[in-house]
Amino acid sequence: MKKAILTMLCATLATGATWAQNHLEASPVMQQVRSIIMQQIENGSMPRFKADTDPLELRRITEAAQAGMNSDMPGFTAEPLQLGGIDAEYCHMAQMRDDAVLIYIHGGGFMCGNAQTSRGYALIYASETHLPVYTFSYRLIPEAPFPAAVTDCFEAYKAVLERHPGKPVFLLGESAGATLCITTTMMARDNGVQLPAAIFPYSPVIDMSGALNRKRATDEDFTIDADGVQLMTDLYVTPELRQNPYASPYYDDMHGMPPTFLAWDMNEHLAPDSEEIVKKLLTQGVECHFKAYPHCFHAFAPLGRSTPESSEILDQTIRFIEAHIK
Fold first, then answer.
1. Do 171 and 196 meet the contact criterion of CB atoms below 8 Å apart?
2. Nearest CA to 270 among 197, 180, 185, 176?
């Protein structure tokens, strides 16, 4: 029975569909958001990963855009601190629960973003759950290639565990941050460290070696394409290390992983990465909930209440967290 279910699931994923899908088109609000982002990419106020991208200019654009995210809410505080030797922030609401902890690991192609530019996302999760949220400034490329970001996130994760002994810790992240959620968990598993209670890798990139076939007629990604992925790969990891599972989780079988919730755009260039992780997790018998959405964009999941799609993901994320607080 299990083999039959997995065979059916793999066939469904290969078509770019999902058994959790309820709609064939993006919501009108999502279509408007897509249009606005595409216009911002065209005028240079939002980033796009492509072959001729200047990483430092991309970092400037991204940080300027994310700095504009509203994190000015009464009762919300972001406290700077050091975790595992890197800069971090401890974000929380005035009325805060203490029965669990969240860690948000930012995306940005491993080349942009930091703890401070993550405040807008931290605010979403802190205000919705009333749980504290940690954010990290892990080292970035091109200055610090693999394994710097992986090492930083794992050391910071262990520091959070030390600050909250016995508490369940949840990892959330999008794009490169989703990848780092996965690799941080793998390192915890492989080193006998307490696992996260659950992880939420939204639109991860799991293969830096070129082994995963990402060529599809449905690819309509306007944020990152094959050339952008290649640029990121070349800056992130040397060729001889691209099959290292901590660089490319594609080469890990995902054994012993905690409950996982994934969400992605079924038409994004990196959709096969999410689909492959789902297949691996289900093959290992890991609790795995997922949903692919049509005609959104790469790493849209943390938009919170901005769109019906991201609002649904947020609701499901909260329910998944609550179900795994023990």
1. yes
2. 176
Q: What residue spans of the chain are helical by DSSP H?
A: 2-14, 28-43, 55-67, 119-129, 148-163, 176-190, 226-236, 271-283, 308-323
Please state, in angstroms and as integers, the Cα–Cα distance from residue 317 to each residue in 128, 217, 291, 324, following that order.
10, 30, 12, 11
Indicate if the pLDDT at residue 3 is higher than 50. no
Q: State the average pLDDT over residues 165-193.
A: 98
Sorting pLDDT into bands at 50, 70 and 90, what band is 205? very high
Which CATH number is 84's domain given? 3.40.50.1820
Q: Containing domain of residue 121, as a range?
A: 23-323
Residue whose tokens read 């997790």? 281
Mean pLDDT over residues 191-219, rounded?
A: 95
| pLDDT over threshold 70, residue 2 | no
Joined tokens for residue 136: 């990290």
Distance, CA of 46 to CA of 62 (rounded, Å): 6
Q: Does residue 26 carry a pLDDT above 90?
A: yes
Distance CA 70, CA 296 (A): 22
Q: Quote the CA–CA distance of 202 and 176 in Å, as a whole number.
A: 9
Contacts of 85 (CB under 8 A, 6+ apart): 152, 155
Residue 140's pLDDT is 97
Entry pTM: 0.92
**How many domains would you assign to the chain?**
1
